[in-house]
Amino acid sequence: MPDKPLPAVGVDLGTTYSVVARVDDSGRPVTVVNAEGELLTPSVVLFDGSDIVVGKEAVKALLSEPQHVAECAKRELGASAFHQKFEGQLVPPEVLEACILHKLRDDARMQIGDFKQAVITVPAYFDEVRRKATQDAGYMAGLEVLDIVNEPTAAAIAFGYQQGFVNPRAGNVAPQKLLVYDLGGGTFDVTVMELREAEFRTLATDGDVCLGGRDWDDRLIEFVALRFADRHGFDPRAKATVAARLRRECEDAKRTLSARPKANILFDLPNCPFQIEISREQFVELTHDLLDRTQFTARQVLRTAGLAWKDLDRVLLVGGSTRMPMVADMLREVSGRDPDRSIAADEAVAHGAALYASWISEQTTGKPRVVVRNVNSHSLGVVGIDRATRHERNVTLIPRNTPLPVVARRTFKTRSAAQRSVLVRIIEGEAADPRHCTSIGSCTVSDLPSDLPKGTPIEVAFHYRPDGRLTIDVGIEGTDRKLRHELTRTSGLDQADLDRWRKRLGGDR
């Protein structure tokens, strides 16, 4: 009797909380509890000497030793190092993400047995650099990353499963257009999707990788800190341990304001008693510009998709921060309908990723069970020279919101006879000036034939995959040479560093 295949899981690697899900024997997605018996794992990392602690205990350490604790590493993916040193050392943010993934992997193993494969979700607005960093984090944690899927897409998959779009026995289900409004703890995405039978098609997407519930917390912290300073003459945020305690109090008050019209914030320090009341109306006023930013993005995405609010069948809420009543109130006002809360705000993304992982794992040759079609969230281009000004400019090859996968080709010409190499610099972004775009890296086509005349065409083909990752093929006119080139990246860890961290984190076990 053949061995039962190892399960593949879905991972919602969140800014503030992370979730693992699997598909059970009946085909339903279910959340896998962690070692503490909880559904959500705080995405917080504590460096405790030579030990690395992730989750609830790391959160507790924020109140006593914040200098050893990392929060919100996801917001810094793409940077060479996290903003805070640990034991005098700089740590890349993808390593912190790998620490979280390793904890999730170990905890899930205790529940479902050994496994290696996972689908990891990312914000739809993540660029190629951040997606590569997420994939690297999975590698360091000892996971085989089957795919990187956008969080709103994963949520739509969970919703589609619930509505019968992936169940052939459910019969024909009417197509639906939905706007997925995904406001998490640290990131925000809006995606317009069309669900039609077993096809999930993204029409347009936009977002902000530095906008989430934490920013609402920051406004409450500012409100309380200024009033505390007025009464006692000093800012409580000046000391890290006190600032960490203030943040926890304000997070609790935010949750209270989602359930009650008022909240009391008690924040007593030695010889400095302090209590303040804040109403839901005050909180809305303090944060209205943040909410307005999400509304503006939602309108822009609809416009890009060629739709109006009336064309939507549903406005789907995803992410823990959508529990704030102001979110539903705003969307109800602009869309003219009640937002849909039918899927679990905290678990839906992981559930969709688990479903997608199971479909990939079971897929054999032939027609896939479900088709997921994404778009790119940022334009992809190369650095070119403007012939008139001789200044560098962004030459866009693949505009944003182009359906994936896609192949874009660009022909360059050698500038001199017997030229032996061509350098291609690749960037993401919409700005005309390359300095205002994100540099992905460069591709050097070397060892060209020595007898090439000046002006020989060199065709570079960019293969943009559905997971938002990029590979490059190069062809030389007049020859049969076809080259596959890897990027020399401007950020990220090289393979030796990835292997070193993988060994240290126990990813090989």
Highest-level CATH class of the largest domain: Alpha Beta
Overall pLDDT level: 89
Question: What is the C-alpha radius of gyration, as a whole number of Å?
Answer: 24 Å
What is the H level of CATH, i.e. the homologous superfamily of the largest domain? ATPase, nucleotide binding domain
Helix/strand-derived category reads alpha+beta
Strand percentage: 25-35%
Q: Which regions contain 5 or more consecutive residues with pLDDT less than 50?
A: none
| Strand element count | 25
What global shape is seen? globular
> Count of helices?
10
CATH topology of the largest domain: Nucleotidyltransferase, domain 5
CATH architecture of the largest domain: 2-Layer Sandwich
Helix content: 25-40%
Kindly report how far apart the N and C termini lie: 27 Å
Number of domains: 3
How is the main sheet built? 6 strands, mixed
